[in-house]
Amino acid sequence: MSATVITNIATLVTNDPSLRDPDPLGLVRDAAVVIEGDRVVWTGESSKAPATDNRVDAGGRAVLPGFVDSHSHLVFAGDRTEEFNARMSGRPYSAGGIRTTVAATRAASDAELEATLTRYLAEALRQGTTTFETKSGYGLTVEDEARALRLAARHTDEVTYLGAHVVAPEYADDPAGYVALVTGEMLNACAPHARWIDVFCEQGAFDGDQARAVLTAGKAKGLHPRIHANQLSYGPGVQLAVELDAASADHCTHLTDADVDALANSATVATLLPGAEFSTRAVWPDARRLLDAGATVALSTDCNPGSSFTSSMPFCIALAVRDMGMTPDEAVRAATAGGAAALRRTDVGRLVPGAYADLVLLDAPSHVHLAYRPGVPLVTGVWRRGVREV
Ligand code: NIG
Ligand code: FE
Predict the structure, then answer these.
(1) What is the pTM assigned to this prediction?
(2) Which ligand 1 atom sits nearest the alpha carbon of residue 250?
(3) Does residue 1 have a pLDDT over 90?
(4) Is 203 one of the annotated binding-site residues?
(5) Where is the Amidohydrolase-related domain (predicted)?
(6) Shared-domain flag, residues 252 and 137
């Protein structure tokens, strides 16, 4: 198998645990990376790189692991520009807007949903995302939820069943009946197509008992839990996530000290979604408080047409640095290794021998420029599974 060396890298972010002390990003200066097939086989100083058949000159720029976007909602149809406009004139965000997208998604053909999904995945790839998770949650019938998962599974292994996004309109007067459907017939139809189960634990969506019922039923079917928790208000979601060993508690905007302690003393990652706070003009999650307590933090886009219509991990990094108390190093780490931890993976989000060759080349000398030069399209090269895609 022929190998390729990417050399003349001014700053290489490896996230290599063995290089992490005192630098959490495992930085290597004047570096090179060797790729063979779909894997990284060597990283280190350029001068020590082994000879290979092919050579790519990074031109004194920065290379980092491809972004791991561990939270998105990309199987949808329609658009909620009006709702966004109304919010920017002062109307608050509420979970009820989800039903607008449910109606549009149910009415769309498979081909339309697939075209939308493909479009936003291409957009994300151009901005450096090489691994992504995506969810159902805009179908809310047995057939529509299973269809969403089938379509998603054509594009990623990280597929999440979110039948419990909100109570389906047909069950408005019978939420218990909807939970029974989500944990029964719908789960049976969806489990074969998903790796994860999720629930929106929030006022106006599902309470703690309902969320527990959903995640427990999913676990019994072999799905692993993750949860939308503490987004719009304080609530039981984070504690439930830790209790059930969820891979990730997502949003984490309203946290008590006990919630922060619970996350810090668990394997549950706190996934922060600054695009949602940006697009709903909500208070920012306090990343500093979580990091100082010792919690693992991930950053993701939450890309969806309602609360966060961005596919851009660089944008989320810039917001997290400006408004959530993260350093650029912490934000880049959260968008790469943090996302991988939220998906319980070690084969992505780091550039070490044996990991997938998922790399981003920036038109900048350092990863810090992702926050230092917000809004500038710095991603100039993307390799996914060893193949150059951008
Ligand atoms: O993560 N919070 C729940 N779900 C999405 C919002 C979906 C929507 O508004 O359509 C979120 O923000
Ligand atoms: Fe979400």
Answers:
(1) 0.98
(2) 1
(3) no
(4) no
(5) 63-377
(6) yes
